[in-house]
Amino acid sequence: QRIGIPREVFPGEKRVATVPEVVEKLIKLGFSVAVESRAGDAANVSDADYQAAGASIVPDAATLWATSDIVFKVRGPTPDEVSLMREGGSLVSFIWPGQNPELMQQLAAKKTTVLAIDCLPRTLSRAQKMDALTSMAGVSGYRAVIEAANAFGRFFNGQITAAGKVPPAKVFVAGAGVAGLAAIGTAASLGAIVRANDTRAEVADQVVSLGGEFVKVDYEEEGSGGGGYAKVMSEGFQQAQRAMYAKQAREVDIIITTALIPGKPAPKLITAEMVQSMKPGSVIVDMAGEQGGNCELTVPGEAVVRHGVTIVGYTDLASRLAKQSSTLYATNLFRLTEELCKTKDGVIDVNMEDDAIRGLTVTKGGAITWPAPPPKAA
Ligand code: NAD
């Protein structure tokens, strides 16, 4: 079968769904690979690089979609892309079926088989190698620190130089999931003093192991809402949490927020008053912009200055590190392809008895198969 890689069409999207190193591996599994011309441009991968790895280059999107049995993409397809898709074709990409019912109907009408990489059952340890949510969150957490460092007027590490003594920057990370932990590790490696908080007590050890200090809210309530995710906290907890965050806001130079609750708007953790209380020149990077933001003053997609504080609300942090995120994403999709093609004969088999594959499959031959039942084995 032929795997096709279109150029991403979402404005500003720089990632691409495969890279030359992975093209070689897909070919070893028995597939042929076609790449739309200039698909890798924004990630610094040229057509010649793909060709050297064994891919063929096709001139335009229409040809790519029409001649591919399976399409690998990053962003979910637009209605135009679905219309280019082969009837009965297969697709692997981010889909977010819960937020995109119309797209799901269009994909079903085309009798497609679609594996939504965002629907991977993450509690299966076997699925970790395919977990693009984790790899993209890791890149984003790293990039959030780079954005903070770029907007901040001082060093992260403390220094004693002939020109004077420089104190280390203080960084507070709100939410210590995958992205938050990546941010903690990156900020600590640059030499900052890092503190972090999460409603799930279980992450405290991980914060410490990455070089951070876990700061507790003075209120007993467990924040786990099942499946490793958070729940909405009680009003009493939220009040106590706001008091602690207000104190941190006065003390630190940089706040990075990553707090999300599945299916709910992002919790508002940083109020306008807290922003006002920060030192001039401080920076907030709000990674929850797409879900409404953790900070009241965030403008999703933009960097703004409010009360002398730069608030970065970019929603494309992974795309801003396009080569790295494309390489990791491509590797996640390769690991998935291995699972779909155990016979290594260049033909995929979407085995609905397999927990991981079942979870990912949101349409099969035109039937909507989302949401999947919870996986049997953990
Ligand atoms: P996420 O992006 O949904 O949330 C980010 C963090 O925000 C979470 O740690 C959450 O607890 C925290 N948060 C939510 N509300 C908050 C509040 N009011 N105040 C402070 N913090 C708040 O989470 P994620 O990064 O996708 O990870 C979710 C979980 O899934 C983690 O436990 C992670 O380890 C787990 N996970 C497991 C696997 C695996 O085992 N294969 C793979 C990936 C992720």
Major sheet, described briefly? 8 strands, mixed
Biggest sheet: strand arrangement = 3-2-1-4-5-6-18-19
Strand content: 15-25%
Q: Termini separation (Å)?
A: 32 Å
Average pLDDT across residues? 97
Secondary structural class = alpha/beta
Shape: globular
Estimate the helix proportion, in percent: 25-40%
Number of β-strand runs = 19
Q: Give the names of the bound compounds.
A: nicotinamide-adenine-dinucleotide
What does the oligomeric state look like here? single chain
The number of distinct helices, counting runs of at least 4 residues, comes to 12
Q: Which helices and strands appear, and what pairs or packs with what?
A:
Layout: E1 2-5, H1 20-28, E2 32-36, H2 47-52, E3 56-58, H3 61-67, E4 70-72, H4 79-84, E5 90-93, H5 101-109, E6 113-116, H6 132-151, E7 159-161, E8 164-166, E9 170-174, H7 178-189, E10 193-197, H8 204-209, E11 213-214, E12 224-226, E13 229-230, H9 235-251, E14 254-257, H10 272-277, E15 283-286, E16 303-306, E17 309-312, H11 322-340, H12 355-360, E18 361-364, E19 367-368
Parallel strand pairs: 1-2, 1-4, 2-3, 4-5, 5-6, 9-10, 9-14, 10-11, 14-15, 15-17
Antiparallel strand pairs: 6-18, 7-8, 12-13, 16-17, 18-19
Helix pairs in contact: 1-11, 6-7, 6-11
The structure holds nicotinamide-adenine-dinucleotide (NAD).
The site of nicotinamide-adenine-dinucleotide has 31 residues, from helix 6, helix 7 and strand 13.
